[in-house]
Task: structure prediction
Amino acid sequence: MSAAAHHSTVEQMGLLYAQQQSTAKQTEDYLQQQYDNQLALNAKNETIRERLEEQQKAFVVERDKKCRHVSIYHSGQRL
Result:
């Protein structure tokens, strides 16, 4: 292989390596962003789950109050 051909090959390999490094960095950045987004979504989902749980508990309490009220009303009607 001539010196010029060798130099050209080495130069091409250097360019290819730089391109691979750039692609690897872009991939790393993308994956990190996706990971961060997933963590944020998980946190939002947990907040929503907690709110729904609180609403469900409040609903059950209100329903039970109404049921007791209706039951007391109906038991009074029978007297």
Summary: The chain has a mean pLDDT of 91.
